[in-house]
Amino acid sequence: MKVMLIILGIAGVAAIAVVAGCRMLAGRSTEATVALTAKIPGKVAVVYYSQSKVGNTATVAKWIARHTGGELVPIEAVEAYPDAYGDTLKAAEKDMENGGTRAIKSVPPLDSYDMVFIGSPIWYGTYAPPVAEFFKTHSFAGKTVVPFCTHGGGGAGRYFMDVRKACPAATVKEGLAIRGSNQIERRLGTGVTVHHTEDDVVNWLNAVF
Description:
Layout: H1 2-26, E1 44-48, H2 56-68, E2 71-74, H3 85-97, E3 115-123, E4 126-127, H4 129-137, E5 144-151, H5 159-166, E6 171-172, E7 176-179, H6 183-188, H7 192-195, H8 198-208
Parallel strand pairs: 1-2, 1-3, 3-5, 5-6, 5-7
Antiparallel strand pairs: 3-4
């Protein structure tokens, strides 16, 4: 009987600790505490592709738009990738074997924008196939392009270099790579807010502009 009570007591403490941890995570503030001193010139668009339900790249895009006054421009695949992470990677690998792109829904012309932030998750060391299709269908001549990306721990890979190659007639600024979430974190419903806050975006903007 005593053993059972001890076991129940330990389980109860563990459960309380888990709940408390979840509450701490849910209540964590990600709002910027650093002042933006950068002067962002011209009209800004924040173009991004975000695949996971956690919305890592979308979250960073919203942070950038909030501090630059940019207009959010999502890239959406005509045929969405599967929800399961492993299935997504398999589908993306097939896309890359078949030309490296995936058809996207219409994205409006960016002629009226002076600066374009472009964000993508890192898949196989570079931008996702829908972003590759976006690069094929839009011109960035004479514009300032600012890349950003999210990753699961492997870094930006070739992303920044590949963006420069895709925009040879643009001025490409120093990019931002933010740790997003791995498979376990996705299952727990956590993402960029676990590792990063808007301060990371503001510090980057202050350094680049």
